[in-house]
Structures are given as structure tokens and as C-alpha cells.
């Protein structure tokens, strides 16, 4: 099975890291195909950049689908709290999995309530909104910010782990979470450290999404085309491309 | 005062119609500046096209702001149930008004519950989602589809009015709505006919948004920059442009 | 256009202050007509006094409507978190605007969540209840009390501003509000001071309500008479009047 | 124990009927003291009349409390879906029971969901709002109108029963209610007929409220005075009285 | 009238204490019949034990009903936040009252919001879940744990009261509760001490449930048999019994 | 990996059918270990039987865990809308998956809203309640009953498919569902027929649960033990066993 994993930003090293995390959990017969969008921000932290990412990912996946020699079986959008999953669902016949939703759905199997620990304070409302739309907010205890930007996450691993552990602990003790979701596609490698420090299960969205995508494919299930996610109607569209 | 009114699709005649509706209600000192996006769909009916519209409008407004000789005081995004308002709010210091939200907020002053009557069945969930995110769904009785596409709306005015009246009547009698919002930027001229046939107030989003934008400007109020809608952080962004 | 602005208490100097705030934002062609009820409390702080105010305002507006030489175009009920708006809507054909709702609706255009900062702790539940009924509580982060009574508000402006800034700051930092509504008709003149100290938009209900009322009149919209706010049915009613 | 039962309208024969219903279920040591307000409508069907009733009941109970030779132990406000209970709670140290809430709370012990069947269509939103404020709407399947006015209820008993049975049956079969609340103080005597015809428990608000009031008195419980329902603060109030 | 009061654990002294509390408030013609289950835990603190209790109580009540010489009129399940009430409702024609729900419904008559103060932190989610299912969570301010286990409650009365008062005070001041429910069947005797220390009404579930059960019997009301709580269908069932 | 799949009723042929469905989707290295409870009902249709099932499954799994030579990696409770999952989570260190929740979580990836089509009308509220507790009801369009009992499902396959298709079609067209969950453990083999007739994705709980369980094991995730699902505290428990 081939699963496309679309990074939401234009930073190739992040695409590589996400692909590596995905491969670490993927089944032996699963091929992970990483995608980097042609336009947008080097890191996505806010609505404007997230909307750019949504369109850039949709265009990248469209382009890949039109030119790839081999078909693919599922797509993962590897941005936490980002816009766009619904557009991919319209464009494709294969299942689409957003890592925000995969993490939350997975967390709900593991405890009475879960929290998300993310990067900057300004991204908290985006995540809250995506969970609300996805129907996954009733058991969300809180979304908390570590205060670190996406690019800062990788600069000093110890500082990053300390910040995530601090907010996770507050989530568990103050907000009564019992499970933590790491709220950024670039936090995949940190789950074990946070789990050890807090004693609660820690869910990474990318790896959770890989197992969800594989599951949907194995179950022979894909997006309903009856209404919301029907293919776009034929019409005249001017496509966006990356400026030179 | 100058108010930008951004059409969400690339059809210039629709931009003209929206601008005319806006001007009909604008105050004597208000200049309406219409904007047509450089890329996207000729009509927006679904998530993929709506995401394209969101980015195209944001790029068009950014471009206008960077090059216009005169400043503007507010922006209206004239698409019903479309993505993107949050991105504009980050990019601008002036207030941003989405017509979906302006219509619903206005309707709430007029009756115990309101319904939206829109175009195609597939756009109903988009409108529901925008109202949910905007915190305006508690008093929404229903969102109903007329079954007519955006482009069909103008083909046969009698058929269009008949379809809107049929669904509005069902909304009033079956869903217990007391006010109707016309759920498409291109329905502005039809409000009076629907009001006459149903006997309930009918709100058009474009005209409602003009009065909201003027009100915010007169009150000296604009988007909070404290968290969610802070300006994008400085970073490397590859911009999308229209393909040739 | 003539807009009635009804104070909810019997203190004439407050009526004057509310009228002055309303006039400061009203359009050049708008006449503000202040109304003071004939019975009720000198300041309204609780349910019993609020119910008295509801009836006193309804009776005062009825009386004005029956005897005024000139018609009026809209009515504003200038009490924050008070009962009664629905009764006025039944009695009148012109639009009715409650300042609690005008402030909240206006705030929702400006940020992801808003808080209300009001007078005494005991009035917090009244405001929460009115927002719940109005369908405006989903994005309300909190209602906070300054601890000052209505009559204390004007005694020491510095103390009042300090109390409002203290609670507004807690609302922004702790409750994650991005906009503040001043929760008392008598706080109109303090918005700028709170905005300067907190850096977030501050909405005053009276001025917001004036722009809403003007907008509804310009849009030709008024209360739906189809069900909830139909005129009272003809029946025998013994009217209340002020005791001598 | 002495329980005041306040009719919300000025029709003395209704007060008598309500008192008779209350006495039929009251314990042997309970004295029912009926109260008729001095002003307001002969029957209450809408917000304006309901606000009049709220104040008239509060004034009547205040007046009774000030002049009665014997104290009373609880007060029942015998109007369905009417404003005012909160004001009585502030004025009194003894428990206050609203029949809308007593019926709903009682119904919740008897089935998974309940419906209310009331008089006119226009009163449905008032009942919905009171249940929402009371925190009793989560298990409310529907509020349905029989189409009969308060005064019509008693004109033709067979027609009334038929209308109530028709709506109750729709509530059970279509809305999935399992219990019916009769939504008018004047329907007390009809519960058994509706129960026989529908096969589900039928709750009358007046009789339910009597048992609730007696229970609270026996448990030694009364309204919390810590915040919302603290006594009104001392201040200058002009009282309303009935016009002559 | 005879009311069965079923303890949820196997500790006979607790059954005695619960029966004593019930008798203290029961009417002169009410006989309280205590029931102790034949299997399950000596104290119930968690889901596994609560499920055991649910079945053990159902089997005990079935057994009693099959063998008792005199019929009974109502059943109270005297466990706070425990599973099982719905099963009893299917098995019996007489009303069933859960003390969690009786306490919350009673508290809602007494203040704008209520909190529950219970034993161990781990039981908080069980109580929250039962209130959610019962449609009684909208006005629940919080469920707080004293940190004392069921068996510790009786070891040191002063320590117990101090812990309950500490959490009750936090509930009132921080969570804005106005009424406290004591969240354990074994706390009946402590209500007065907590009320004195906090100044707010304190509701005990067992005594509240007795008055609710008596009220339902007097009103001639019992569980609806139309759908959810219809009697079990005839089928082959292997019964559980206590191991030897 | 070894996954226990616990039937909730005592009918061995159903256990076999569930195990066969599970094996059909399980990975090549997954061993499915079926469990049949020692007591309870031959089919579970209502709360009393569901509570029996909850305890019987917990006792059966405890017993298996205590005596099995090989450990197991996850447990699936294969009853739709049944009580008990929380108790298993306390007893075990390995993940526990309820098929009701697995089906709903899976459906949410596939469409904007989903419906459940189940057996008898009386089981609808049980499923609604489980979805509410699980935080999965926000996007549930409806739970509909086919009118067939568990044992009737297998008697006439054509009739069963016809009934499921009828209700599924109503769910899609009337309730606006876009995905159908088959709401009974015994419907596994019917998904394809319903999908063909309706054109929307159809999710079976047992097969969905197998992929969820495998995913959790592969991700190294299990139930949080921090609060709600901590192991039962040591105490004296009398165990239930099957009567002879």
C-alpha cells in the first residue's frame, strides 16, 4: 500500500522528518511517499499561512495524482490544526487523514479526557476550531501552548522536552487530562520522553495517522461521495502556482 | 470611508452585482471598492474551491493594500459559508466582515431562530461549519438548499424565487425559523420577493455586512491583535500566483 | 431617524449619560430620544430589580408610543444583562436592540473570544443567562465582576478604571479573551482607558447598539411577527403604574 | 406547612382551579394559600404578559409576606414557561418552585426523554427558553403546541383532550419522548385522560411543584443566598401598583 | 408506603447508616426497607466495582420482589455516581430514584449552579458521566474530590468535615457554585456541618431521594414503559450469584 | 499479537461469527481469541441485560487473564451500545476497544456526519448514551432502529438487508448522514450489501475495532492509569459466578 504524507510547509527537512516518523510505524508492505508543497510558508503558525498550506497541499496532491505512475491508497495531511482536509477529501477517492483528528481519535481510546500540547499560543485557537469541526472537542480537556515556535522545536531538544513536559503536567493535574497529544507534526520523536516524564500515554499525530490510514485501506473504506465531499463540479478554474 | 468588498470567485459580473448591492445600502460617504481574485473558480461550491477562494482573496487584498494609493477602512469577504476570514484578519489592521456571519448576527436581532436558504445541497455543511466556528449556530434552525447552483441562480429569476420561497416556507413552518438569511452572495436582489411571499424578515449578507463594517469603523473598533489574529510572524513564504 | 434609548433605572442623570454616549456615535440624521422609566430601582443589580425594569421600560415605551407626536424607528434597551427585550419586541413594529447582545455581537467580529467585565458579582449570572438565551455564549470566555456597584462606578473614576483593567487583564491572560465588553450601561466613557491599558478592543454596549439600530433601520429590517414576537393577543389587562 | 401558590394571571377562577389541584395532592398538614396578582393579563400568552406577571407575582408575594399574620414555608409560581422565578428567590428566604421546572425535573425520573405539550405556538419558545436557563433541556425531546389558547382550554374538554393527545402521540412517536409534561397551569385535571390515551406517564406542573415544595421544606433546604439570589441591596425603589 | 433503599456495597453497617438517614426524613407512613447486595465490593470506588454493584443491586431487588410478602412502592439506589439505575427501571413497575440524580435535581431548585464534593479523585469522572447522561450537567459547576476513600470517611469525622468544607469552599469561590451536593451515600450525617461552615445549602442524596420517591408515589407516577425502560424481553438468561 | 474478542451474550454461535468477522480483517500475525461470558442473556437488548453482560465480560476476561498461558495484547468488547468498557479498562494494562466507539471514530474519517442503524427501537437510547459518553455524538446524525431483534437478524437475510437499507436510506436522505455504522455485533457480514444499495460507506464495528486494537498495539499505546482507569484498589470483593 502507498500512503502519501503531505507536509504543510515548504521546509524539506521537515518533510523528511515526518516521513521518517511515518515509516517507523508503517507496516512492512506500506510505502510512505512524502510530499512538500510548492508554495506557502517555511513553517505554518497561524491562519493565513494555514490557508496557504491548505491550497498548496491540495495542488501538490492533485499534481502528484495526475502525474504519478503508480496510484496511491491514502493521503495524510501532516499539519496540526491546519485548514484543508475537506478539500483533499473532495479531490480524491482514497481516504484522507488529518493528523489532528487521528491523534484526538486515538487519544479518546486511552483515557477519559485528553489535552493537546502545541507550539505557540496563537495556534491554540486553530487547533480548538479543528477539533470542534471534527466533533472531537467534547472530551478535550485543554489545548496548551509550549511557547516554542515550530522552528525552535528542533534547536534545543532538552528545552523543548522540558516545555512539553511542563505543559503536559499542567494539563494532567489542572485540566484533568489523562492522555497528551503532541500538537505539531514536528514533535514525533518526543513522545517517549514526555510519556516517561508524565506517566500518561502520549500520542503523536503522524504515527497515529499512519495506522488510521492503513486501517481504512484494509477495511476497504473511503470518503463518502454522497454530499459534502462529492468531487468538485466541472467548471472553469484558474489554478494557483508558486511565484518565481 | 472606503470598504473593500471581495468577491470569492473569478466572475467579474458577480463582483459587479455584489458591489451594486453594497452601494445600494452604503452611507453617502462610503466608497465601495470591489475586488475580484486572480485565481480560483468561476463560482464557489464546495471545500476545494472555497479554499482556493480563501487564498485568492487574501492574496488579492494583500496586493491591493501594497499598491493602492489610498488606504481602506474595512474589508468584506462576500462569499457565503466560505473559508478564509481568519486569514484576512491576521493580514490587516482594519476590520474584516464575513457575510455569513453578518447575516446571522443581523438575523438574531429579528427573531427567536433563523434559517439559511442557500444553493446546492453540498454547500449546506460548509455553512453549518462556518456558523459553528463563529459561535452563531445555537439559534440557527436549519440550513436548507434550494438545489440551484450559483450560476443557475441568475438564469431564471422566477424559478429562483420560487425555490427560495419554497425552502423558506419549510424553514418557517417545519424548522420554526422566524427569519431567513439568503445564503449566497449572489442572492442580494431577491430578498424583497422572498419577504413578501413568506411574511418574515429576509436578510441578505452583503448589505448586512456593509452596515456592520461601517458600524465598526464608526465605533473605532478593529480586530484584536493579542493572539489569534496577530500579524503573521516574519518568515520565508513562497507566494501563489495565477497560472498563465 | 429617531431612536428611543430606554434607561432601565429611575435615575435621570444616568439617562442623560447614556443619551450623551448614544449621541456621540449616532449619525448626523439620527435623533436620540431618552426614556426614563416611571417605576423601579435607582440602579438595577439583580433579578427582582431587573424584572421591575423590564416592565417599567415596556410601560414607558408603550406610553411614549401612544402619545408621541412623531414616530420612532428603533428602540434600545440600555441595561446590561437585564430582562425584558422580548416583551418590547412583541409590543413594537420597529427593531429592538438590547445592549448586552449588541456588545457581544460586535465583539464577535473582533476576536476569537470575548469577555464581559461588569459591576457586582451577583450580576454575573444574569449576564451569562442573557447571553445563553441570545445564542451568544459559545464564544464568551468569561463574565467577570469588578466588585463595584452601579452607583460606585462614577464616584472615583481612577478606582473604576483600575478595577476594570484588572479584570480585563485577567480575562485576556487567564480566560483567553481577545475582546472586552464593558458590562454596564454606565461604563460608556471608560472604554478608551481600558483599551489603552490592555491593548485589546473594548466594546461599549450603548454605542454598539446605536450602530446596530441604525443599521437595521437602513436595511429596512424589523422584528419577525410570525411567532414568538407576534403582537399580544387582545385581552383584558390591568396595567401597572408607579405608586405615588 | 403553608405553601403559597401564585397564579400568574388575574383570573380568579383559574386561581381557584390551581389551588384545588394543589390541594388534591398536598399532604394532610399542608395548607395551600392561593395568590392572585393585582395587575397583568387575564391569561398569559407571550413575553410582554409574562413580564407583567413576573412583577405582579413578586409584588403580590411581597405584599402578602409583609401583611400576613402567619408565615409561609414555600412559594410556587404556577405559570408554565413564565418569567420571574429568580426575582422571587431574591425576595424570599423560603424555597421557590416554578411549575415548568418541577414538571421537567419530575419527568426526568420517569423516562429517557420528555416532551411538553402546551397551548399556543407562540408560547413554545418561552418554554424552551425557561428549560434552557434551568439546565433542563438536554433531555427535552420537544415542546409542542396544541393550538388552543389558555381560555379555550376549558371551553370544550373533549376538544382539549383530543388536541393534547394528538400532540402527545406525535411527541412519543416522532420526537421519541417517553413522558409528557402538560405545559399550562390550567391543564391539571387532564393528565389522567392523556395518560390513558397515550400509555405514557403524564406530569402536571402544579401537582409536581407541590411535592417538590413539601420535599424542600422537609429537607430543611432553601435558596442559596451566596450570590445570584442574595436579597436585593437597599436602595430607592418606586413600586408599581395596579392602575385604577 | 414501602421504599426499598439499596446499598451498592456489601458492607452491612453502611446499609444501616443509609437506612437510618432515609428514615430520618421519611414520612410517618413510609417504611424504609434496606437492601444489601450479595456480591460486589465492600466499598465502591471505580467502574469495575460500580458495574458489579449495578448487577448485584438488580439481582438483589429482583430476588426481593420475587419473595417478599408485601409489595413495595419505590426503589432508591443509594450509590453516588454508580451505574445501574436504568436496569432497575426495566425490571420494575415502581419508580426508581438514583441518589446522584435526586441530589442534583434538588440542588437545581436552590441556586444558579451546584457542585458535587465526593471521595477519591478517580470517582469524579463517574459522577460527571452520570450527570451528563441524566441531563443534569448544564448547571453543574464542578465535581471535586476530598481525597478520602469511602472507608476513610467514617474514621475521623473532623478530618472528613474539614476536607469537605475545604473543597466546598473552593467550589463556591472558584467554581461559582451556590449549592453543594455531598457525593457519597455515606456522607448523609455531614450535611449540616458543611452548611454551617460554608453558608450555602448542602444536599444529601439519600434524604433527597427519599422525598423524591415519596413524591412520585403520591403523584401516581412511575417509569415509562414505552421504549427505553420496557420490561426485558423473554429470553434465556443465566443468572449470576455470589461465589461461595 | 493476540487480541481477545469478547462477545457480550452467551450464545456461542454468535461468538463464532464475531470471531470469524474479526479474523477476516486481522493482520497475518494477529491471533483472535474469542471469549463467551459464563452468565447473562442469550442476546443483549436493553439495560438490564447489558449490565449483566458488562459484568460477565469483565469476569470472563479476568478469569482468562488469570489462567491463560500466553498473554494478550488488547481486548475488544463486541457489543454495540453496551455498558462495561470502562470496567475492563481498569482491570487491564492492555488497550480496550468498544465496537460502538470504533465504528463511530472510523465513520468520522469518512463523511461529515454518520448514522447508526441498529436492531430494536429500545436499544436506540443505549447507543445514543454510549456515544454521548464517548464524546462521539456531535457528528452523529441519528440512531435508527430496523425493528429486528438480534436473533431475528440471522433468520432471513433478505429481510434483514431490506430493513437495514430502508433505515440507512432514511438516514442519508432525511437525517443527512453520509456514512452508516451497522449497530450490532451480529451485522458484520451485511456491510457490503448495505453499501451497494445506498452508495455510502458502511462501517462494521467488529472489523473496525480489530484495526483500532492492532493500531494501538503497534503504536505502543495503552489505557492511561493516572485517574479514571487506575487499577481497582485492594479491597474485599465477593465475586459473581454463573448460577447452576
UniProtKB/TrEMBL annotation, chains A, B, C, D, E, F:
<dbReference type="Pfam" id="PF01177">
    <property type="entry name" value="Asp_Glu_race"/>
</dbReference>
<dbReference type="InterPro" id="IPR053714">
    <property type="entry name" value="Iso_Racemase_Enz_sf"/>
</dbReference>
<protein>
    <recommendedName>
        <fullName>Hydantoin racemase</fullName>
        <ecNumber>5.1.99.5</ecNumber>
    </recommendedName>
</protein>
<dbReference type="GO" id="GO:0047661">
    <property type="term" value="F:amino-acid racemase activity"/>
</dbReference>
<dbReference type="InterPro" id="IPR015942">
    <property type="entry name" value="Asp/Glu/hydantoin_racemase"/>
</dbReference>
<comment type="similarity">
    <text>Belongs to the HyuE racemase family.</text>
</comment>
<dbReference type="InterPro" id="IPR052186">
    <property type="entry name" value="Hydantoin_racemase-like"/>
</dbReference>
<dbReference type="GO" id="GO:0036348">
    <property type="term" value="F:hydantoin racemase activity"/>
</dbReference>
Amino acid at each position: 500500500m502507498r500512503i502519501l504524507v503531505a507536509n504543510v510547509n515548504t521546509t524539506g527537512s521537515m518533510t523528511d522528518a515526518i516521513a521518517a516518523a511515518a515509516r517507523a510505524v508503517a507496516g512492512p508492505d506500506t510505502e510512505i511517499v512524502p510530499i512538500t508543497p510548492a508554495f506557502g510558508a517555511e513553517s505554518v503558525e497561524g491562519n493565513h499561512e494555514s490557508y496557504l498550506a491548505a491550497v498548496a497541499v491540495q495542488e501538490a496532491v492533485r499534481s502528484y495524482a495526475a502525474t504519478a505512475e503508480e496510484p496511491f491508497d491514502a493521503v495524510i495531511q501532516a499539519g496540526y490544526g491546519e485548514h484543508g482536509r475537506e478539500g483533499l477529501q473532495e479531490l480524491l477517492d482514497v481516504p484522507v487523514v488529518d493528523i489532528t483528528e487521528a491523534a484526538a481519535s486515538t487519544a479518546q481510546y486511552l483515557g477519559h479526557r485528553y489535552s493537546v500540547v502545541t507550539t505557540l499560543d496563537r495556534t491554540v485557537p486553530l487547533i480548538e476550531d479543528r477539533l470542534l469541526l471534527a466533533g472531537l472537542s467534547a472530551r478535550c480537556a485543554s489545548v496548551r501552548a509550549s511557547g516554542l515556535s515550530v522552528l525552535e522545536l528542533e534547536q534545543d531538544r532538552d528545552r523543548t522536552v522540558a516545555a512539553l513536559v511542563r505543559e503536559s503536567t499542567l494539563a494532567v493535574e489542572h485540566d484533568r487530562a489523562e492522555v497528551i497529544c503532541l500538537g505539531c507534526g514536528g514533535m514525533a520523536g518526543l513522545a517517549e520522553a514526555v510519556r516517561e516524564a508524565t506517566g500518561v500515554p502520549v500520542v503523536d499525530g503522524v504515527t497515529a495517522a499512519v495506522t488510521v490510514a492503513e486501517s481504512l485501506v484494509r477495511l476497504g473504506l473511503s470518503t463518502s461521495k454522497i454530499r459534502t465531499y462529492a468531487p468538485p463540479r466541472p467548471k472553469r478554474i484558474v489554478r494557483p502556482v508558486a511565484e518565481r
